Amino acid sequence: MRLSQVTAVLDDLYPPAWAESWDAVGLVCGDPGQDVRRVLLAVDPVAAVVDEALEWGADLVLTHHPLLLRGVHGVPASTPKGRLVHRLIKNDVALFTAHTNADVAVPGVSDALARAVGVTGGLRPIVPAPDDPRRGLGRIGELPSALTLAEFTARVAAGLPATAWGVRAAGDPDRPVRAVAVCGGAGDSLLSDVRAAGVDVYLTADLRHHPASEFVEAGGPALLDAAHWATEHPWLADAAAALAARLDVETRVSAAVTDAWRLHGASNEGVK
Predict the structure, then answer these.
(1) pLDDT beyond 50 at 272
(2) d(CA 196, CA 211)
(3) What architecture is domain 104-228?
(4) What predicted TM-score, i.e. pTM, was given to this entire model?
């Protein structure tokens, strides 16, 4: 396959017009005429992922997070991002990003997150897109049967890739949960929409202390806070399958754990 054929399929699956105005999606580097036989998928464009791509012989790396989100005036190899660009180009490896356009796609990042934690019933966006109610940010669905918050927290921890961060819960451990909202990545901007949706629990990442505390104190749904990387990782398998179904390419989900947090120290339960 030519790289141009692969990017055309990716643009069809995750149209760049769906990306937020501040986002940077699409082809970062690579010759549209080059051959693509192997595609490595990862959440983050970091050195460990490039190492794996070169070792496996990937021709294209598809990442969720952009490498160059903000404008740059150069990519010298003396900088971390510049070194990545130089390594990719020297080894004829292309880099492509599908970020917020993959967040709102159907299926997208939050669909994969919902399925990974057992939420399957009637998935719909938390915030539907104005032009298509099937598409939008986050997902709301139902568990097959009610669980306590403690039980659902354990299910989420088992369904997502392991991280030092783990999964934190805010709310009564015995609270029954059935209706669930999820949002892959940082989802605190959707807290008011989640409250209005009337769900029992909201799973996302990067929740801050004050908004989370005020949300629970005001009687909102319970909150689950997982690692940012872990909430977006399930989408990689979906994207890999979609590519393999449409193109004659070999796909592989990166084995690299690129969550920024690597160590976790358990608190002393006796400390108040």
Answers:
(1) no
(2) 16
(3) 3-Layer(aba) Sandwich (3.40)
(4) 0.95
